[in-house]
Amino acid sequence: MFLGRVVGTLVASRKEGTLEGLKFLVLRQIDVDRAETGTYVVAADAVGAGVGEIVLYASGSSARQTLVTKDRPVDAVIMAIVDTWEVHGETRYHKYRE
Amino acid sequence: MFLGRVVGTLVASRKEGTLEGLKFLVLRQIDVDRAETGTYVVAADAVGAGVGEIVLYASGSSARQTLVTKDRPVDAVIMAIVDTWEVHGETRYHKYRE
Amino acid sequence: MFLGRVVGTLVASRKEGTLEGLKFLVLRQIDVDRAETGTYVVAADAVGAGVGEIVLYASGSSARQTLVTKDRPVDAVIMAIVDTWEVHGETRYHKYRE
Amino acid sequence: MFLGRVVGTLVASRKEGTLEGLKFLVLRQIDVDRAETGTYVVAADAVGAGVGEIVLYASGSSARQTLVTKDRPVDAVIMAIVDTWEVHGETRYHKYRE
Amino acid sequence: MFLGRVVGTLVASRKEGTLEGLKFLVLRQIDVDRAETGTYVVAADAVGAGVGEIVLYASGSSARQTLVTKDRPVDAVIMAIVDTWEVHGETRYHKYRE
Predict the structure, then answer these.
(1) Is B12 exposed, middle or buried (0-12, 13-18, 19+ CB in 10 A)?
(2) Identity of the residue in C48, C62, C82 whose CB atom sits nearest the CB atom of B12
(3) What CATH code is carried by the domain that includes residue E68?
(4) Of A1, C58, C68, D26, which is least surrounded by CB within 10 A?
């Protein structure tokens, strides 16, 4: 999985029928220092994420292993909202101490 | 999923039998500012997209989760035509205001 | 899917049993202007392609959705021989007008 | 599979329900000389790996083929802790001789 | 599939249970001129390959379509040992004429 910052939303009214009701968010991939890597992805939201939040997203067939994405043509899903991570024993991000 | 602009069409008469009737479109991947990224992809069309439209496409096994691509050897599918997206609260694209 | 030019053939006599009878071709990936992109791939052939032909190939699990590749350990398959494509209304390739 | 060094941990309390109990680790991908390649990945842990250890991780649908990740939306899993590897007959890494 | 040269071996005693008995080899990806591309991969061995041999490997879910890798968390498998390939009618590699 990669880390991403939710930066926006996307609306598509004409789509494959099974996608009805799914929420699509625009993510910027970030590295462990929270710098943007230049990669964006449009992901389905399985956890109620909002713009500005830092999330974990899964790609490929694994993106279809959530309640809202099962059997649907989506290849990226936000499956967790990140609270905190640390690298080499040092906290690099903490959701409630920003 | 990634954003793409439909730039062309492709015809192949000699192909795996199950592909009969599928429509193949040529996409240029674009970023959230609608700049082309240099990547193209040939995708099956599941939503009736036309040249010039901005679409969302899914890759890998997820490309086989539409009515027209199920069990077929395709690894990219257009699963939505995009109406609008916004980034940092600002509309970056709106289909009907171009 | 990506476009490729068939540039060669590959023979392997010691291989996983289920691969018996499969034909392996060497492809150079090309872009929509038919320039080689530097990427090669060895693909199974599902359509009787020959050296010099321009083909469409699928990767990943989708490469196992043809009659000859089903349940076999192959991750790339030629699933169509391309007749023609056009970009921005202009024909960029036509098999029978070369 | 690729080699990675476990460099940190990640906590996410709001997540897809099936992820409850899974441990997420932050990896830096390394090459066969143990130099970091610049790529990081967040992986589920299937083997009880700890920070500092060198591990092997699998990506994509293969990441769901462990007891702890089955049917869950994860696309990377640590499936082995590496003891040693050698390249051209020379040991490049040995867990117990560092 | 891609071509690789087997350059080494890897041992991991602490691993997901289903991996018991699998042999892991270190590969350097090569191009059709046998130059190393800079990419390495650790692959399961399904054909009894040895260090020095040139092989074909499959990635992703296709890596689980061999007798030894079925349902196991591996994302790369050596599924053939290459005898020969030719490009533009010219033999670029022949196992028994080296």
Answers:
(1) buried
(2) C82
(3) 2.40.50.220
(4) C68
